[in-house]
Design a protein that fits this description.
Length: 213
């Protein structure tokens, strides 16, 4: 309870954002690095790994649950966000398309503690989160499987490993290039056009890096 009060007291004037990730380390570490680098208040930007499982539908459901019910142990009050994002990969998940549909159905339907409609968005990557990192170095235009993405990424970042931190610091000098490449892919493909390469992470990264602007 004390943590909740402290976080609320530190809340800034910009949007309150909840991000729930499929991965328990790689994605939250990367997004938390951005939050810290851009001096975003933790009371405004909350990054949490999913706790119902790693299937995309479980990630979306946990994001909904965490928004609606909160978690006082984590210092999260119910309905205390304007925007909710569920970050997950295509991989070979059976529930991938159902997760996209559920997120879409929730967008604008939930209400927060200010009685505002809440943006609820899936941030999907085909085939995986590492595609976003690879776009910092290569212009991927054709379908590519997750193993190939990882192998090619490690050619550019030999020390990269899932769960290791420092990915944002390592790649940020190439961020604008990755943004342009991801936007170009999004102009041709989307989260539903599997197996074509796609990631919506550029949207979330752009939001976080401009939130205080």
């Amino acid at each position: 309870m004390r943590r909740k009060v402290a976080k609320e007291a530190q809340r800034a004037s910009y949007a309150r954002i909840l991000i729930v990730t499929e991965g328990s380390k790689t994605e939250p570490l990367y997004l938390e690095e951005i939050r810290v680098a851009h001096q975003l208040h933790s009371a405004n930007v909350e990054v949490q790994p999913g706790e119902l499982g790693t299937a995309p539908i479980q990630v979306v459901r946990y994001a909904q649950q965490l928004f609606e019910q909160g978690d006082l142990y984590k210092g999260i009050r119910p309905k205390s966000f304007e925007q909710v994002y569920a970050v997950f990969d295509r991989d070979d998940h059976d529930s991938y398309f159902n997760a996209l549909s559920l997120a879409q159905s929730l967008d604008g339907k939930l209400r927060n503690d200010d009685r505002q409609a809440v943006r609820f968005q899936a941030i999907a990557s085909v085939p995986s989160f590492e595609l976003w990192l690879l776009l910092h170095y290569e212009d991927i235009q054709a379908p590519i499987d997750r193993d190939e993405v990882m192998a090619r990424l490690k050619q550019h970042i030999p020390a990269y490993d899932k769960g290791a931190g420092g990915a944002f610091a390592t790649t940020r000098v190439r961020l604008e290039t990755a943004m342009q490449r991801a936007q170009a892919l999004a102009a041709k493909f989307n989260a539903y056009t599997d197996p074509e390469p796609f990631t919506a992470l550029h949207e979330l990264v752009e939001l976080l890096t401009t939130l205080r602007a």
